[in-house]
Amino acid sequence: MSSDTTDIPVIAAEDQKAKEAYFTASQTQLIWARFKKQRAAMIAAMVLIMLVVGGIFAPFLSPYDPTIAGRDKDYTNGAPQIPQFCDDNGCSARPFIYAVERERSMATNFRWVTTINTDKRLYVEFFVKGDDYKLFGFIPGDRHLFGVDEGKIHLFGTDEDGQDIFSRTLHAIWTSLQVGTIGVFIAFVLALIIGGVSGYYGGWLDGLLQMITDAVRTVPAIPLFMAVAAFMPPEMSAEARFFYISIILGFIGWPTLARRVRTHLLTERNQEYVLAAQLCGASSSHVIRRHLLPSFTSYIIVDLVISFPYMVLSETALSFIGLGLKDPVSSLGVMLQKATSADVMLNYQWYFIPVVFFIALVMAFVFVGDGLRDAADPYSDTKK
Q1: Structure pTM?
Q2: Is the same domain home to 155 and 225?
Q3: DSSP string spanning 119-134?
């Protein structure tokens, strides 16, 4: 009986500490606490982190340069090579693959034929020296996570040009993320400026800006890119095309966020804390930047995360139909282009491996965005 009575004050003290921590927590801490309770969002966040890290460190993680040195003329349209430890000749402590040999055969009228030599093992090595690269665009290096001596390894197989699909997939993820990041940044800046001015001042300026917003929203993306592609010279570099695609995606992707910023500022501009700042002599830009926008920063972050997959989808769709990035740039849309022929669908199914990563990337962004949206809503717990 006495032990039960002594436990009551301890439990009450713990409840009191939990309440104090809840009421003194910042908005970021509250969002993170609610976000951790959502298992699907946490799993998606871990998948997203792995894909982003894989894309950032693609030059190191991939064994070859995906566009130049990775071409293997002796293994075009080659099937994935899975490292193994045992075969008919015994087991090994080190993973290995079989050597690939290319020779002319009388059975095929002396055409080149690729054969697998199961008697010759190529052992997988780690931190091998290979193609030169620049990590993050400026850190030079030539070490790769894995490779084989006296040959090449293709975990996801090769395409019709002998390019390593594994290397191209990692670089494609990074390219699509870069396009999405630049596009989201441009859309974010335009949305804050246009939505903030429209919502804070209202009146005729609000009407004019909303007319512009509606006009941009009605612009069809595909015809716009067709017109831009018609004016792009064929000799335009891949970097310039990448730059133009990112800018256009950003300039047509800001209206939705601008509308949300405007709606929030229309309701908040008459609050007492805004009036107090104005009476203290604060300028309009100061009120918007230091008082109004921070009042819903969490919702802006959620909108940015949710808009990311749409940017990636737009780039992939445009590259897929030939209006976006093109070879030798590795992007998810460019790689999906090669998986559309009937010959590939029937004989070279490993071309669809990048599709799995594309779906995982988009779904991870969607689940993380939904999780952040629910976590940023203070009434999400009461709705369930």
Answers
A1: 0.79
A2: no
A3: EEEEEEEEEEEEEEEE
